[in-house]
Design a protein that fits this description.
This protein has two domains: 93 residues, Urease, subunit C, domain 1, CATH 2.30.40; 272 residues, TIM Barrel. It has 16 helices and 21 strands. The chain is globular. By secondary structure, it is of the alpha/beta class. Helix 3 crosses helix 4 and helix 10 crosses helix 11. The chain starts with a helix and ends with a strand. GO terms for molecular function: hydrolase activity, acting on carbon-nitrogen (but not peptide) bonds. This is Imidazolonepropionase. It holds the Pfam family Amidohydro_1.
């Protein structure tokens, strides 16, 4: 049975990729000249919603925006008066070549890392399409992607106009053991498969140099794992080596001490940061270090907790405790002026849940923390565009910007969660992604 499975594996992967390509060609159209009329439009730079707006798109670029845009001859007009237009959403913490079955132990994480490389790429193409259909037009993929499989996926997507744009980190830099809490002796090969292990400053420079040579867009480092903290001098060496290549650094942190070490070492961003003290948050604000809160909404949290078998009062108390901690940390960061950037960190394969919509749902968690809708939307548009150094191309709907626009069914300002879950149409690079038009 095992031999038969291995013989059939290449053909199964080829068929999967072929089926995906066929479905994609029936979904996307060529770039067109289009004039959209919308009930509301989110102005990410002014942090406000405008009414009765028109958007003229041609050659993949936004040509005009306003209340009285003249329709050029031959341009197709689309009336979306019941929709809210926003810039294409930017998810700054994705794992598109990692899809983990939810389990009560670390077994799911380990098994997801064992999937053959070509199958992970095929899987990544599907997940990228799911994100695009949900309104995410740009993502920053942060590891758990084998040895540069993210770059292979990035290249595949870049060959077809109207596909998700990816920024990638390559393998995560980590101390010995990576993020695997426990591995059988036969599985220890996964550590070097999924991570660049840093034991000393020479390792740090060597890893960053290799990443730069492969063409990554950012360096991601684990400042802490279940195996302990990465030493401050190693974090500093990673930052200095990255600067020499013009690369920014973002740090995975769970503990406050790890976050503080990373900030003092000079990183540009903190991922997660679940337990940040006031003094660490203040340090982030002073040093202009952004925060990527990979939080969960109440609805999503209930689904995930149910998936690990926790029930009743125990489950309710556990969820509320976690939500309160996330909300408190986020509000303290916002109050002190830390730049907030949307990141989903969604990598679970849960029956009935879509990768793209589950990723976008993280924005609901920020709203549930008490952040106004107009500010939440900045976290997914103009703020990440600045971090990516792409604020002159994406993150706003204005003349001269790339035509990455999402049209949500309903009034996003007045009915945020429901409208956010109903993307009616997506325009990516001027390509209209819609089966109904």
């Amino acid at each position: 049975m095992v031999a038969e499975h291995l013989l059939n594996q290449p053909m199964r992967i080829i068929l999967t990729v072929f089926a995906f390509i066929i479905s994609l060609t029936t979904y996307a159209q060529e770039a067109q000249s289009l004039l959209f009329r919308v009930g509301k439009l989110y102005d990410s730079q002014k942090k406000t919603f405008l009414t009765n707006q028109q958007i003229l798109i041609s050659d993949g670029i936004i040509q005009q925006v306003g209340t009285n845009v003249k329709k050029p001859k031959g341009v197709k007009e689309i009336d979306l008066n019941g929709c809210t237009a926003t810039p294409g959403l930017i998810d700054m913490h994705t794992h598109l070549v990692f899809n983990q079955k939810q389990t009560k132990t670390s077994e799911g994480f380990n098994n997801a890392s064992k999937i053959p490389s070509q199958e992970r790429i095929a899987q990544g193409l599907k997940l990228a399409q799911s994100c695009l259909e949900a309104g995410i037009t740009t993502s920053r993929d942060l590891g758990n992607s084998g040895q540069y499989l993210d770059i292979k996926l990035q290249k595949e997507l870049s060959t077809k106009k109207g596909s998700l744009t990816m920024f990638v980190s390559g393998p995560i830099l980590s101390g010995p053991g990576g993020q695997f809490s426990k591995l059988a002796p036969a599985d220890t090969f996964l550590i070097d498969q999924e991570y660049s292990i840093i034991r000393n400053t020479q390792d740090a420079k060597k890893a960053v140099d290799a990443h730069a040579q492969h063409g990554v867009n950012v360096i991601k480092v684990c400042a802490d794992t279940d195996h302990g903290l990465l030493k401050k001098e190693l974090l500093t060496a990673i930052v200095e080596a990255s600067k020499s290549h013009g690369l920014t650094v973002t740090a995975h942190t769970n503990s406050d001490k790890a976050a503080r070490n990373a900030i003092l070492a000079g990183v540009n961003g903190i991922e997660h940061g679940y337990t940040l003290s006031d003094s660490t948050i203040q340090l982030m604000a002073e040093r202009h270090v952004y925060l990527v809160p990979t939080d969960i909404s109440r609805k999503q949290g209930k689904i995930m907790i149910d998936g690990i078998g926790m029930k009743g009062k125990e489950a309710d108390d556990y969820l509320e405790s976690n939500l309160q901690g996330m909300h408190d940390r986020l509000k303290r960061a916002v109050t002190r002026g830390v730049s907030i950037v949307f990141g989903s960190d969604y990598y679970l394969d849960i029956e009935g849940l879509d990768r793209g919509k589950s990723s976008v749902d993280v924005l609901v968690s920020y709203y549930e923390a008490g952040i106004p809708v107009a500010e939440v939307m900045q976290y997914a548009t103009v703020n990440p565009a600045k971090v990516l150094r792409a604020e002159n191309q994406i993150g706003a709907i204005r003349k001269g910007m790339k035509a990455d626009v999402v049209f949500f069914e309903g009034d996003l300002e007045q009915d945020f969660a429901a409208t956010l879950s109903q993307p009616k149409m997506v325009v990516k690079d001027g390509v209209l992604l819609s089966k109904s038009h």
